[in-house]
């Protein structure tokens, strides 16, 4: 329905756009702090409007639309620029703007001194606005516009420090992989228009049952095509390979991508199109299994990584697998609940990791005479501050960062009573009731999650510092710590949004997602999941408490799982397999085609291949028979015929005027005689 009096809703998108325009036009005249202030104020203003909109939805839980203008009109095809505000979109806007604002504030401190800080905050505001377009659009085309814009922003921000070739390659990898998923998504939109005659949610969803009855199979086809798009944006099998490399950008970018914006788009899209998926059980099963398999695969890979941000990146893929599995099996509220809590603790973890990196890079690097002996330092080499083997002992040097990181890590592991425990337990309970295979995969993933969380805590914060940089790390400043503290509070208490027996989020979202037969809280299952999490943490403590490691040491886990650790560290060789099957053949074919039309290549090909050996003699014989006998024979015959006709007609072109006049007269006589003859015999 369209409700009057909510003209302020477009400001949710408008404020970030205004912020980036101000910085584009006047950023050169502002200081670093001024640029950051503009960007943060724009994000915060957007959050305030989103909060007001959320309150308005309490009065109109059925939702309302705000029409701006007609964007596209071509025959029967019409796409309005209109915003849909309902419980689902209002929850998403609060997460995007709220967590996004905290990340913006943190970035002011993190990016201090960067010469391209204006460009950075322009991109960050654009990223925020793009995600808001995606979640607020009232039709599939506007959703797709936001979908593509967040892809563009990810490319710009992942490759922000493009001077390093690896960053540029990571940005290109993200862009290309997402285009593959987007191709499937746009085909799904085309099929929606073909089947429903509209791309508006309000037109499509009420017709789903009628279209499914009239055209069996079309809903399944649509949902599978949309799933391809979701596997790209939300980094699921087989298109998950871009997200671990996305941490090449500045840490605030990683937090924004992994927690508040881009990767949640696929989960949101499946939840938004629940009316389609609910009538496509085959698609639901596929979505659930892909999500669960991704959760387990990524969790095992996280066990073998050494880069502090790469561990969190695979953690994101795994947790997205939990969300995709949930919405795939029809537990839409559980999936959205985990999306919200994950935004809290994953933003907290990434920003805390950034605080660690910042503190190590900006610490006092002159050793103190009272410092403990350092382990594994190279001579004259610059140590990577993201490699966990170069850290250790930071709990004492960066106490606040350690505390907030610990809260985020325990929430990720699913430890009671933090937010991750409640949202993950709800997904497990729904999976046990609806799809046991999905449940088994997710429960296994939960164990590996707890293990790599414990491993990361041991390598980064406990034990002795293993480098001078770690021994003299400094705590980050207040502008970076305050957002971390706020996120830590949210990560701790965020489970209150949907506690068993209360279900505040469930009752709110049912106005959009419909009433669900939610699984009851299962104390036995919750205890089993919590026990597995504690076991994973304890096992990590037992493996890493006595053996500090450096980049030159074997990981202690190799003593337990032998060669399997290499497979985990090399990410199950997925990148190598993709490279052999797709990337290198594609590059070779592209190069061959690029050269195939080059004149020198053609000359060399003819000279080296066609003009050698026996092939030459065969070619010459055929050439003489075909070329000289047939082709030249035809050409020469036509030439001789033309010459003969020309010789007979040469007298016409005598050059005398009297001959031309006589010829003209004869022609006129012949024409007049022909006309008289036709009249005489009665031809009409």
How would you portray this structure in words?
The protein is mostly helical and 684 residues long. It has a domain at 619-680. It has 29 helices and two strands. The protein has helices at residues 11-26, 32-59, 87-110, 117-136, 140-158, 165-196, 201-204, 208-214, 218-233, 251-260, 265-272, 274-277, 281-303, 308-328, 332-361, 394-397, 399-413, 419-434, 436-461, 468-471, 478-493, 504-513, 523-544, 558-561, 564-569, 574-596, 599-610, 613-649, 657-680, and strands at residues 64-74, 77-85. Strands 1-2 form a two-stranded antiparallel sheet. Helix 14 (308-328) packs antiparallel against helix 15 (332-361). 50% of the residues are buried.
SSE layout and pairings?
Elements: H1 11-26, H2 32-59, E1 64-74, E2 77-85, H3 87-110, H4 117-136, H5 140-158, H6 165-196, H7 201-204, H8 208-214, H9 218-233, H10 251-260, H11 265-272, H12 274-277, H13 281-303, H14 308-328, H15 332-361, H16 394-397, H17 399-413, H18 419-434, H19 436-461, H20 468-471, H21 478-493, H22 504-513, H23 523-544, H24 558-561, H25 564-569, H26 574-596, H27 599-610, H28 613-649, H29 657-680
Antiparallel strand pairs: 1-2
Helix pairs in contact: 1-2, 1-4, 2-3, 2-4, 3-4, 3-10, 3-15, 3-21, 4-5, 5-6, 6-9, 9-11, 9-13, 10-15, 11-14, 13-14, 13-19, 14-15, 14-18, 14-19, 15-17, 15-18, 15-21, 15-22, 17-19, 17-21, 18-19, 18-23, 19-23
């Amino acid at each position: 329905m369209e409700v009057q009096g909510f003209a302020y809703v477009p400001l949710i998108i408008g404020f970030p756009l205004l912020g980036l325009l101000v910085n584009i036009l006047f950023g050169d005249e502002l200081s670093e702090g001024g640029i950051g202030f503009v960007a943060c104020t724009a994000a915060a203003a957007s959050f305030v409007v989103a909060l007001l909109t959320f309150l308005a939805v309490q009065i109109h839980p059925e939702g309302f639309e705000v029409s701006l203008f007609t964007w596209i009109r071509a025959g029967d095809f019409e796409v309005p620029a209109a915003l849909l505000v309902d419980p689902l979109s209002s929850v998403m806007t609060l997460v995007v703007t709220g967590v996004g604002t905290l990340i913006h504030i943190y970035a002011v401190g993190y990016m201090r001194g960067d010469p391209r800080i204006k460009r950075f905050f322009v991109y960050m505001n654009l990223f925020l606005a793009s995600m808001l377009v995606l979640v607020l659009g009232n039709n599939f085309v506007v959703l797709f516009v936001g979908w593509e814009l967040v892809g563009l922003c990810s490319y710009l921000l992942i490759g922000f420090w493009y001077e390093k070739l690896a960053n540029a390659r990571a940005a290109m990898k993200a862009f290309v992989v997402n285009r593959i998923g987007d191709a499937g998504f746009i085909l799904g939109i085309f099929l929606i228009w073909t089947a429903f005659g509209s791309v508006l949610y309000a037109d499509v969803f009420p017709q789903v049952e009628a279209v499914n009855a009239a055209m069996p199979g079309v809903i399944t086809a649509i949902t599978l095509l949309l799933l391809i798009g979701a596997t790209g944006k939300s980094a699921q099998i087989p298109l998950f390979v871009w997200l671990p490399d996305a941490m090449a950008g500045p840490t605030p970018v990683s937090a924004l991508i992994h927690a508040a914006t881009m990767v949640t788009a696929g989960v949101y899209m499946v939840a938004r199109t629940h009316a389609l998926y609910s009538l496509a059980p085959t698609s639901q099963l596929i979505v659930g299994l892909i999500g669960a398999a991704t959760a387990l695969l990524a969790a095992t890979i996280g066990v073998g990584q050494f880069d502090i941000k790469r561990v969190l990146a695979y953690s994101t893929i795994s947790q997205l697998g939990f969300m995709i599995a949930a919405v795939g099996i029809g537990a839409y509220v559980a999936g959205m609940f985990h999306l919200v809590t994950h935004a809290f603790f994953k933003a907290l973890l990434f920003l805390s990791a950034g605080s660690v990196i910042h503190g190590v890079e900006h610490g006092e690097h002159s050793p103190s005479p009272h410092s403990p002996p350092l382990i594994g330092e190279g001579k004259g080499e610059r140590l990577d501050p993201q490699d966990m083997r170069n850290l250790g002992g930071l709990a004492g040097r960066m106490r606040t960062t350690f505390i907030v990181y610990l809260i985020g890590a325990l929430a990720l592991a699913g430890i009671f009573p933090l937010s991750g425990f409640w949202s993950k337990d709800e997904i497990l309970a729904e999976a046990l009731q609806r799809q046991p295979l999905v449940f088994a995969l997710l429960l296994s993933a939960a164990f590996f999650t707890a293990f790599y969380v414990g491993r990361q805590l041991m390598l980064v914060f406990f034990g002795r510092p293993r480098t001078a940089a770690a021994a003299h790390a400094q705590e980050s400043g207040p502008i970076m710590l305050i957002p971390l503290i706020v996120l830590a509070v949210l990560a701790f208490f965020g489970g209150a949004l949907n506690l068993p027996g209360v279900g505040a989020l469930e009752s709110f979202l049912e106005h959009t997602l419909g009433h669900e037969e939610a699984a009851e809280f299962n104390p036995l299952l919750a205890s089993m999941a919590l026990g597995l999490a504690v076991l994973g943490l304890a096992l990590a403590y037992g493996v890493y408490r006595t053996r500090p490691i450096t980049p030159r040491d074997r990981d202690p886990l190799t003593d337990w799982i032998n060669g399997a650790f290499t497979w985990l560290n090399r990410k199950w060789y997925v990148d190598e397999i993709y490279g052999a099957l797709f990337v290198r053949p594609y590059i070779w074919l592209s190069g061959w085609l690029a050269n195939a039309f080059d004149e020198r290549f053609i000359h060399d090909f003819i000279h080296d291949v066609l003009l050698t050996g026996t092939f030459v003699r065969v070619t010459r014989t055929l050439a003489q028979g075909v070329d000289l006998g047939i082709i030249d024979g035809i050409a020469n015959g036509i030439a001789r015929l033309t010459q003969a006709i020309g010789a007979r007609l040469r007298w016409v072109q005598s050059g005398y005027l009297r001959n031309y006049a006589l010829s003209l007269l004869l022609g006129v006589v012949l024409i007049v005689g022909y006309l008289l003859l036709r009249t005489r015999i009665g031809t009409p």
